[in-house]
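User: Assemble these into one structure.

Assistant: Restating your components, then the assembled model:
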Amino acid sequence: MTYWIDVLNQALIFGVFALSLNLLMGFAGQVSIAHAAFGAVGGYLAGYLAQEHGWAFGPALALGVTAALLFGLIVSLPALRLAGEYLILLTLSVQIITLVVITSISALGGLQGLAAIPGISLFGSVLLTPQDFLKLLVPVLVLVFLLMRRIAGSPAGRVLRGIREDELATQSLGKDVFAYKSQVFAITAGLAGLGGVLLVYYNGVVAPGMFGFSVSMTIIVMVIVGGSANLYGTLVGTALVVASGPFFQKVIDLSLDKSSLAQLLAYGVALVVVLRFRPQGLLPEGVTPGALAGRMRRRPPAAIAKRAERAVPRTAHAAGAVPARVLEVRGLTKSFGGIRAVEGLDFSLERGQITGLIGPNGAGKTTVFNLLTGALRPDHGTVLLRGRDITGLPPHKIARAGMVRSFQDVRTFAQLSALENVMMGVAGQRGERMSVVLTPVPLGPSDRRTRQRALEWLDFVGLADRAHEPAGSMAFGEQKLVALARVLATEAEVLLLDEPASGVDKRWSDHMIEHIARLPEAGRTVCIVEHNLHVVQQLAQKICFMHEGSVTAEGTMAELSGQERLQEAYFGSMV
Amino acid sequence: MILAFVGIDSGSEVLQALVNGVINGCAYGLLAVGFALILSVTGRFHFAYAFTYALAAFLAAVLERVYGLPLLPAAAAGLAAAAVVGVACDTVVYRPLAERAGSGAMLAVFVASLGIVIAGENALSLAWGPGPRNLTGIGSRSINVAGTTFTTLDVISVVVSVGLSGALWLLLGRSGFGREIKAVRANVQMSTAIGIDVNRIHTAVFIIGSLLGGVAALLYGLKYAASPDMGENAVFYALIVTFLAVSSSSPLRLLAVGVGVGLVERTAGIWLSPQLSTGVVFVLLLAFLSHRSLRLALGGRSLSIGAGRRWRALRGVAG
Amino acid sequence: MVPWSRSRRSAAGAAATAEADRQSGELLEVTGLRAGYGGRAVVYGVDLTVSPGEIVAVLGHNGAGKTTTLNAIFGFIAPMSGTVALAGSEVTKLPPVEHARRGMTLVPAERFVFQDLSVEDNLLLAAMQEPSAERREQHRRRAAGLFPVLAQRGRQRAGTMSGGEQRMLSIGMALMAGPRLMLLDEPSLGLSPLYVETIMDAIRTVADELHVGVVMLEQNVAQALRVADRVYVMRSGETIAHETAAELRTREHLWDLF
C-alpha cells in the first residue's frame, strides 16, 4: 500500500513539472528541454539551505522557487527572439550547462549531491511517511492545476496560444509578445523550481541524476503523450508515465535498474510514435470537461441581423484637433544589404478614404507596410500617425496607437476558433494582463463583453454562425474575412490591408470588396496594396503608384492609366 | 615568469595542450563533417546522430568482447548498423513527418530525433548493460616528441579524420555523384526540376554521414571506451563546429574549425577543471545562439516570422 | 561509380525528338486545370495549348495564379482536377522527374541556378536527362553560341555572376537537356532592359531553330509581346483573355486586363 502511495506521490510531484511545461510548450508554443534544470535550481538551493544552514521548509521553498523563477527570466532573454530548433538548442544547452556548473560546485556535493536533507515540518507535524506527504502534495497539485487552468483559460492564455500559432500576427494586433514570453518562462520555471524542491524533500537527497537530460525528456513525454495544451491530458500523461515504473517492475518483473532503462526506452518510443501518428496527444486541445459541457449547451449564434441590414459597428475615435491627414510618411528609406528597397518615400492617407498602393513587382509595397507597422525599422524617415511620431516603435505599440495591418498570407490562428481569433483583436481586455490573471479577480464579465464585441465584428463579415469553428479548417476566403474582422476588432483607425483580395476566386474577392467599401462609413481610413487593378479601381478613391522604392504618381485610376511613363513602368516599354 | 603569472606551469604544458587540442579537434571535425553533410543536404536536424554514433562503437565493442569477434568484422558490423539505423530514421520517421508538417518539419524532426536517442540508448543498455566497454585490437605505443606525449592510436585517429574529410571533399568536388549531392544541397527545387531523385540522395547522405560519425565513435572507443550514452556529448561538438563553420562548408573547412574548437577546449583546460573545460563548448554554443538572437534584434526585424508555422507543424495541423 | 539517381530517357522517349513533334500537332495540351496549395485551389479551370516552335506568353497580375499553373503543369504540385498532356500522352499525375525525362524543362522565377556550383557544374547537371555524350556536346555548343559568356566563365561560381548572366545560364541549362518544351517563369525578372532584350531574342531563336515549344510567364508585358505568338491573360486564377500577340499589341490599354 505504501508502495502505491509512493507512486502516487511521484505522480503528484511530476504533475507539477508537467502541468507547468504544458503551459510553456503546449499553450505558448515554446519547446523547452530545460525544465528539469529549473527544477535543479530550486531543488539544489532549497536542499543546500536546509541541509547546510538549517533553514526551515517554508523559507527554503520560497527562495528555491524564486531563484528558479529568476533563472527562467534570464534564460528567456535570448529565447525571446529564437524559435523552433534554435530555441530547443538553447534550452538544451541551458539544461546541460546548469548541471555541469552545479556538479562542479563542491559545496553542492559534486557528483554525489547532498544526502541529508531534513524532513518537512509543517504546522507542527513532521512529514515522514508517504501518507504524510500525500497531505501536502495533493493540495499543491490541485493549486498548481487550478492556477494553470486559470492562466490557460484567461484572455492572457488566449494571447499565449496566439503566440504559439503566429507570433507576428499576435504582435501586430497590439500584444507585447516579448513581455508575455518572459512572463510565461518565468512562471513555468518557478513552478518547475517548486517541483524540484518537493522532489528533493520527498527523496531526502538531491543528486544531479534527478534533474538530468532524461528527466527533461521524460517531462516532455508526459506533456506530448497526454496532449499538448490540454491540462487534463497532462494529468493522464503523467499518470501513464509514472505508472510505467510499477508496470515494468511488477507486471514484467524487471529489476529496478532494468525497469528504469525499459521505462526510458518506452518513453522514447512513445514520443516518436505519438509525433508520427497522433501529434496532438491523447487528449487534444479543447477536449476538456468544461468545453464538452459547453458544446452540448451551446447553439450556434444566429446571425445578428440580415446581411443587407447589418449596421456597421461604429468606432468611436478620440475627438479633438486631429489632422485630416491621418497618416503622414516623409522620406522613408530602407536598404537591405546593398539594395535600396524603399527610397525617400513620401506618402499620406486622408481620413475616411480608401487609398490604393500599386506598383510592379518588387517595387517595395509590402516592405512599406512592414516599415509603417514596425515589423521593420526604417533607416531614415518619419511616420506620423494622427500627428504623433511613431517611427521605429515596435509593432504592438503602433497597433495600440491606432494602425494595424492584415497579411497577404492571412495568418489566422489556425487552432483557435473564428470567434477567438476576433477576440484576440479586441483591445483593452483586462484579463490579458498576467498581473491581473494571477490575482483572484473575476474575469468573466469583461470576457463576456469581449466576446459580444467580437461576435458583432464576426457578424459584420457574415460569419457569426461559424463562430466556433477552428479558423484553420475554414476556406481561404473565409479565413480572409475572419482576419478582416480581427483587424477591425482592434478599433484602430488606420487599416493597412495587404492584398485583401488575392488568392481567392471572384466570388470571394467580391465579398471582400463589399466589406472593405463600407469601412469609411465606420470611421476607418484604409490603405490597400493590391496587384489586382480591377479590385483597386473598385475600391480606392486615391491611388499611389510605387516604382523602385518611391511613390512616383498619385491620382485616380483613370488619371494614372493615361500616363505613358506609368504604363511603361508597369508593363515595360512597348517597342 | 610571465607564464607563471598567467597560471601556466611550463612551456611544455602549453605544447601538450596544443597537441591534445589538435588530436581531439580532428575527431570533432570528423564528427561535424558527417553531421553537417546531413543537415545541409537534407535540412534535417538529425539529433539521433548521437545514437548512430554510439551504436557503431558500442555494438562493435559488444561483438568483440561478448561474442569474441576480431576487431575488423566487429567494427564493420557496428558501422553497418549505424548506417542502417541512420537511413531508417530518415525513411521511417523524418520523411513522413516532413511530408505532413511542411515548413515546420525541422521542429517535429528534432523532437522525434530526441525520442530516438532516448529510446535507442536505453535499448542498448537493456540489452547489454550501460557499462562502458573498451574496443581493443589496435596496439598503441606512446610517442614522445618535444616534451609532449601522444600515442600511435592518436596518430591513426588524426590521419583517418583528415583522410576521410579529404575523401569526402574529393567526392563532392570531382564526381558526378558528388555534384548531385551539392545540387540538392544548393537548391532542392532545381534539383527536382532537372530530374535528380532527391530521396535517393537523402538516403545516400544519411549513409555517408552515419558512417563518418561511426568511424569517429570507433576511434574514441579504441582510445577510451564505448557506452550507450557516449553520443550525447559528441553530438554537441558536432553541432557547435557545424554552426561555427556553417553547415554547407566544405569538409576541410569543417575539419579546420573542429581543430579550432579542440584547441580552445584544451587551452581552457590549462586553467579550468576537466569538467568545466568541457562546459566551455556548451558556453560557446550558448554564445552562438545568443549572438544569433542579438543579430536578429539588431537587424531591425521584430520577430522570427516562421515561428508560429513551426509549432503548428509540430502539432500536425495544416495551414 | 554507382549511378544513384541518374534517370535516363528510355529509348522510345529519346526517339520522340522535336522534329517528330512538328508533325504531330499540339505539343502541350492543358485542359480544365485546377490546382493550389494545402487543399485550396488558386487556379480554377485553365486551358492552354502550345505547338512546337510556338511561344505562348501567360500574362497577368502578381498572384493571378500563373506560377501555380506552371508548377502544376510540370508536376511540382499535383493538379486537383484537369489534364496535362505532352505530345498526346497524359502526364498529369506524374512527378517532376518524369516530366524532365519526357523532354519538359522548367526554369523558375527565382533561384533558377545552383548558386554554389560552377557554371560548368550547372550545365553538366542540367544535362542529366541527355544520355548521349555527343548530343550533350551539341547542346552545349548551342548554349555557348547563344550566350558566349557561358563558355568563357566555366569555372566561375554561378552565384557570383550578375543577374542577367545567371538568367542566361538558366536558359542554357534548359537547353542542355535537349527539351521539346520549355516552361519559363518570368525570365525578365530583375533584369536591366538590355539583358531582357537579349534573353527574349534568345528564346525566340530557340523556338525558331529548335522547334521547341515555350510557355513564358511574364510581368514585362511589352517584351513578352515582342516575341510571343499567342497570349493568355490570367486574373484571380482564371483566364480572362486569349489572343494572338498581334491582336493584343493593338489594344489601346492593358490596364483593364490587370
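Chain B touches chain A through 62 residues (CB under 8 Å).
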